[in-house]
Automatic annotation (TrEMBL):
<dbReference type="InterPro" id="IPR014284">
    <property type="entry name" value="RNA_pol_sigma-70_dom"/>
</dbReference>
<dbReference type="InterPro" id="IPR013325">
    <property type="entry name" value="RNA_pol_sigma_r2"/>
</dbReference>
<dbReference type="Pfam" id="PF08281">
    <property type="entry name" value="Sigma70_r4_2"/>
</dbReference>
<keyword id="KW-0805">Transcription regulation</keyword>
<dbReference type="InterPro" id="IPR013249">
    <property type="entry name" value="RNA_pol_sigma70_r4_t2"/>
</dbReference>
<dbReference type="GO" id="GO:0016987">
    <property type="term" value="F:sigma factor activity"/>
</dbReference>
<dbReference type="Pfam" id="PF04542">
    <property type="entry name" value="Sigma70_r2"/>
</dbReference>
<feature type="domain" description="RNA polymerase sigma-70 region 2">
    <location>
        <begin position="9"/>
        <end position="74"/>
    </location>
</feature>
<dbReference type="InterPro" id="IPR046531">
    <property type="entry name" value="DUF6596"/>
</dbReference>
<keyword id="KW-0731">Sigma factor</keyword>
<dbReference type="GO" id="GO:0006352">
    <property type="term" value="P:DNA-templated transcription initiation"/>
</dbReference>
<dbReference type="InterPro" id="IPR036388">
    <property type="entry name" value="WH-like_DNA-bd_sf"/>
</dbReference>
<dbReference type="InterPro" id="IPR013324">
    <property type="entry name" value="RNA_pol_sigma_r3/r4-like"/>
</dbReference>
<comment type="similarity">
    <text>Belongs to the sigma-70 factor family. ECF subfamily.</text>
</comment>
<dbReference type="Pfam" id="PF20239">
    <property type="entry name" value="DUF6596"/>
</dbReference>
<protein>
    <submittedName>
        <fullName>RNA polymerase sigma-70 factor (ECF subfamily)</fullName>
    </submittedName>
</protein>
<feature type="domain" description="DUF6596">
    <location>
        <begin position="175"/>
        <end position="275"/>
    </location>
</feature>
Length: 397
């Protein structure tokens, strides 16, 4: 995809789908029309140049494509197409607590009739414009499995008649868990891209933080929304130090802390203190607190382990246990941490092997470390991560 079109796709795909979903009341129509518009852009923009408003061009073109399609289908007495076309022509102004189209799309996809993992995956697909492989990577499942989930989710929305509408206040509490998960997974894909040449996709990080701010504004009394925003700000503050000028990955212990964004750190720490005063700890608040400790040198590893103990009690997942093991390595040494890591079932997760390799290297077990570095290398499609792992392998020589 040419650079200009790719940049517009990354920044505007979600907005375009959200706008068309509001217009037509159908997610399939919206996504297909936006895809057709970007295909047309691929054909025209290289010769004609970027239009004055690329986002407006995409939305207008997609809207026209959708109307043309619906007119063809309505002519065949397709009652559903007739209804969608009437909805698009009428397009009444909806009222409700959520005014942002992209945030409304997230709440729509997070309907309680869908399983939580399906809500998250569907929103990543529609809002983030992520490919099936990228979403599968986020869920640690095969691509074919994720493809089936997305197809079934869209079918259920159609057959169950789940509407695209603005959720009202009464709908918000039961959907907030999925909404927060979606926003954080969008951020994670930006913070450590599952594929491509760049380690960081700043556009996704920025969009996730924007949505996080809207969620806090929408639900100021929801501590986990505040915690999520704090977590994203604190993690994003390290972005300038995470890669070298040549784009090479720099691990956290080796980063130049002077490059960290102090304004984001201050805002994130202030939000963490706000959460502490509420004393209603949740997973996002605890992760934010862990990152707040990292932001105050020297790192208090004892406090981080205690926070991970609380987090593991709330969310006893292998990934949380893996991250706790990293802290244990700093507090009690790599041998104790390796025993914890080896007990985890994360063989398809590249960071599992990368962390294990580092522990083996610190224990002076180079043969096993090499095998673990290679296993990690085989499991990542990100160019920056691959280069970092190859450098670690070469260092063993």
């Amino acid at each position: 995809m040419p650079v200009d079109v790719a940049a517009v796709f990354r920044s505007e795909h979600g907005r375009a789908v959200a706008v068309l979903a509001r217009s037509f009341g159908d997610l399939d129509i919206a996504e297909d029309a936006v895809q057709e518009a970007f295909t047309t852009a691929l054909e025209r923009w290289p010769e004609q140049g970027l239009p004055p408003s690329p986002a407006g061009w995409i939305i207008t073109t997609a809207r026209n494509r959708a109307i043309d399609r619906l007119r063809r289908e309505a002519a065949r007495e397709d009652k559903y197409a007739q209804a969608a076309l009437l909805n698009a022509q009428d397009e009444p102004v909806e009222e409700g607590p959520v005014r942002d189209d992209r945030l409304r799309l997230i709440f729509t996809c997070c309907h309680p009739a869908l399983a939580l993992n399906v809500r998250v995956a569907l929103t990543l697909r529609l809002l983030g414009g992520l490919g099936t492989a990228e979403i599968a990577h986020a869920f640690l499942v095969p691509e074919s499995t994720m493809a089936q989930r997305l197809v079934r989710a869209k079918a259920k929305i159609r057959t169950a008649g789940i509407p695209y509408r603005i959720p009202y206040d009464a709908d918000l509490p039961e959907r907030v868990r999925g909404v927060l998960a979606v926003v954080y997974l969008v951020f994670n894909e930006g913070y450590a891209a599952s594929s491509g040449d760049d380690l960081v996709r700043t556009d996704l990080c920025t969009e996730a933080i924007r949505l996080g701010r809207l969620l806090v504004e929408l639900m100021p009394d929801e501590p986990e929304a505040v915690g999520l925003l704090a977590l994203m700000l604190l993690q994003h503050s390290r972005t300038p130090a995470r890669t070298s000028e040549a784009g090479q990955l720099i691990p956290l212990p080796e980063q130049d802390r002077q490059l960290w964004d102090q304004q984001l750190i201050a805002e994130g720490q202030d939000l963490v203190r706000r959460c502490l005063r509420r004393d209603q700890p949740g997973p996002y608040q605890l992760q934010a607190a862990i990152n707040a400790v990292h932001s105050d040198p020297p790192t208090d590893w004892s406090q981080i382990v205690q926070l991970y103990d609380h987090l593991l009690a709330l969310t006893p997942t292998p990934v949380v246990a893996l991250n706790r093991a990293v802290a244990i390595a700093e507090l009690h040494g790599p041998a104790e941490a390796l025993a914890l890591v080896d007990a985890l079932d994360l063989s398809t997760f590249y960071l599992f092997h990368a962390i294990r390799a580092d522990l083996l290297h610190r224990l002076q077990r180079p043969v096993e470390a090499r095998a673990a570095w290679q296993a990690a290398l085989d499991l990542t499609d990100n160019t920056a991560e691959q280069a970092f792992l190859r450098h670690r392998l070469a260092a063993l020589d």
